[in-house]
Design brief:
- The chain is mostly helical.
- The protein folds into two domains: about 35 residues, no CATH class; about 40 residues, no CATH class.
- Helix content is about 65%, strand content about 0%.
- It is flat, with a radius of gyration of 16 Å.
């Protein structure tokens, strides 16, 4: 991450508040009643969830799939 450009743009680069927000978001997503996750399963769900914000992430994802293909587990 280019911290100096983020600071120059007056964007947050991380703080207790930011880290706590990330923890709450992950906890809400993965710790619902009766949920049990494997490490791999939770990584996939969080990766897909992260693609939904910001919207341009989907375009970036599909451009990489179009360029490099998509490895599928056998």
């Amino acid at each position: 991450m280019d911290y100096s450009s983020r600071v120059a743009a007056n964007e947050p680069i991380g703080s207790g508040v930011t880290e706590a927000a990330c923890e709450v978001i992950v906890k809400q997503r993965l710790c619902g009643s009766g949920m049990k996750w494997t490490e791999g399963g939770s990584a996939v769900v969080l990766s897909l969830w992260a693609l939904s914000y910001p919207p341009e992430r989907w375009a970036q994802f599909w451009s990489k799939v179009d360029r490099w293909g998509f490895p599928v587990a056998a």
